[in-house]
Amino acid sequence: DSEWYDMMGRMDAYHFTVRPEAPDLNRKYTWFERGGPVSTYLLLKKAEELTGESRLEEIFNEAELTERQEKFLKEFRMIKGANG
């Protein structure tokens, strides 16, 4: 890219590296426990017991993983597969 080259002054002016991190499932559990979803789920579940509704079940049945979550699972499977 000529604009990038003009800004940096030469083609090898900067070297960027990325250090990938292994997916940490424990961090996901910690977020879930401390971030509020668990208590919100319990609240809604208890409210549904009183009202007879079943929106939570509908929500879970229609839920889909995001691209980021799919990527996490793919990386997690690769690491678990390599480590047994």
Our measurement of the CA-to-CA distance between the termini, rounded to an integer number of angstroms, reads 44 Å
Average pLDDT, rounded to a whole number, is: 84
Radius of gyration, whole Å: 22 Å
How many DSSP-defined strands?
0
Low-confidence stretches: none
Which structural class is indicated by helix and strand composition? mainly alpha
What is the overall silhouette?
A: elongated
Task: Considering the chains and any ligands shown, give keywords for the structure.
mainly alpha; 5 helices; elongated; single chain; 84 residues
Set out the fold topology.
Layout: H1 2-8, H2 25-34, H3 37-51, H4 55-62, H5 67-83
Report what the structure shows.
- The protein has 84 residues and is mainly α.
- It has one domain (22-83).
- It is 68% helix and 0% strand.
- It contains 5 helices and no strands.
- The chain has helices at 2-8, 25-34, 37-51, 55-62, 67-83.
- The protein is elongated, with a radius of gyration of 22 Å.
- The model has no long low-confidence stretch (mean pLDDT 84).
Task: Compose a concise summary of this entry.
With 84 residues, the protein is mainly α. The chain has five helices and no strands.
